[in-house]
Every structure is written in C-alpha cells, then in structure tokens.
TrEMBL record:
Alphabetical UniProt keywords: Cell membrane, Electron transport, Membrane, Oxidoreductase, Transmembrane, Transmembrane helix, Transport
Matching PANTHER family: CYTOCHROME BO(3) UBIQUINOL OXIDASE SUBUNIT 3, CYTOCHROME C OXIDASE SUBUNIT III
Subunit structure: Heterooctamer of two A chains, two B chains, two C chains and two D chains.
Entry protein name: Cytochrome bo(3) ubiquinol oxidase subunit 3
Source species of the chain: Rhizobium oryzicola
UniProt main location, coarse: membrane
Homology family: Belongs to the cytochrome c oxidase subunit 3 family.
Localisation per UniProt entry: Cell membrane
Heme-copper oxidase subunit III family profile domain boundaries: 28-204
Function: Cytochrome bo(3) ubiquinol terminal oxidase is the component of the aerobic respiratory chain of E.coli that predominates when cells are grown at high aeration. Has proton pump activity across the membrane in addition to electron transfer, pumping 2 protons/electron.
Membrane topology classification: Multi-pass membrane protein
C-alpha cells in the first residue's frame, strides 16, 4: 500500500494516495455476496421441491394461484430490469438527468411488483391459505417472501442512489454503486423466473 508522509508543525500525518475503495475489490466482494445469496435461494428451492406437494388436505397450487396476475407481476419485474439497463446506458453517456429518469421508472415497476405480491399474500391469508395451513404454503410464503424482501431492499437502495446521484452527480463512487445494484437487480430477475416457472407454472399445470 502506497502512502505519503507529510510533516506538520505538531506531528507527522499519513494519508493514502490511492482510491479508498478500489473498483476491483468492490466488485469482487459484491460477486461473493451474490454467490452467497444464490446458495440461500438454492436451499429454498430444494426445500420447496421436498415440501411443495405436502398440502395437509388443504388447497393445492391450482386452487390458489392466479396465473394472469402472476404473469403481470412477472412482466413488471422484467420491465424494471430493462429500464435499469437504460439507466446504465445513460450513465455511460454521463447523462445524469437521463439516468435519474430511468432509475425512477425502474423504481415504479419495482413498487408495482411489490404491491401485487402483497395483494396476493393478503388474498391467500384471507382465504385461509396462510403459511400455517400446510408445509406447501409455509415454504411458498418463505421462498416468495424472501425474494420480495430482496426487491424491497433493492428498491430502498435504488431510491438512496437516486438521492446520491442527484446530489453529487455521476462520480466514480456512484457509478460503482449503480453497477453493484445493476447486478443485484438482474439477479433478482433470474431468481423470479425460477420462482415463476417452478412454483407457479408447474404448480398450476403440473
């Protein structure tokens, strides 16, 4: 680690001459985090594979899920991934206002996704199909709810970055943070495609 030694009137001072958070180490650390998240979701999917048909004489997926609603919700998340890509393109052009616009649109799609998911959970619970009804519903609420929490945290992160970009512009630190959030957001898209295919689609059609 390189440093520079400056002598003041009172005592010597040391300070770093390189960037405090090098981009390479930040991105590597975030990739490691995503891999740990991947393992967590893998465990949840395996648990769903084991418990997903234990209905305890209760409702099955075909009795509960509205595929049209879930398809709309899936489209919202996929659209949000596309609009985040547009935000990154505007960032590469050093267009702060364009970046903020597309981040805002991404946040709207994310909020709609969360609202529809909360509506679905509320509807199921009022129908007597809460997480305590069967092993299938327990793992369903755990898997889908865990993904929903990630989208919630991602949306909060997105809003925070919008404030940072509006205040400080597209400085190197904000660009790095936007890149990390981009990986996180696309990762959530991939996980949701798995949820939609395995939990909803196979559950209703299988």
């Amino acid at each position: 680690m390189s440093n520079t030694h400056a002598v003041s009137a009172d005592k010597p001072e040391f300070y770093l001459t390189e960037e405090h958070h090098p981009e390479s180490s930040t991105m590597l650390g975030f990739w490691i985090y995503l891999m740990s998240d991947c393992l967590m979701f893998a465990v949840l999917f395996v648990t769903y594979a084991v418990l997903g048909r234990n209905y305890a004489a209760g409702p099955a997926p075909a009795d509960l899920f509205d595929l049209k609603l879930v398809a709309i919700n899936t489209a919202m998340l996929l659209f949000s991934s596309i609009t985040y890509g547009f935000a990154m393109l505007r960032m590469e052009k050093n267009d702060r206002s364009g970046t903020l616009l597309w981040l805002f649109v991404t946040g709207i799609f994310g909020a709609i996704f969360l609202a529809l998911e909360l509506y679905e959970f509320n509807h199921l619970i009022h129908e007597g199909a809460g997480p305590d009804r069967s092993a299938f519903l327990s793992i369903f609420f755990t898997l889908v709810g865990t993904h929903g929490l990630h989208v919630t945290f991602g949306t909060i992160w997105l809003i925070t970055l919008m404030v940072q970009v509006a205040k400080f512009g597209l400085v190197e630190a904000n660009r790095r943070r936007l890149m990390c959030l981009s990986m996180f957001w696309h990762f959530l898209d991939v996980i949701w495609i798995g949820v939609f295919s395995i939990v909803y689609l196979l559950g209703v059609l299988g």
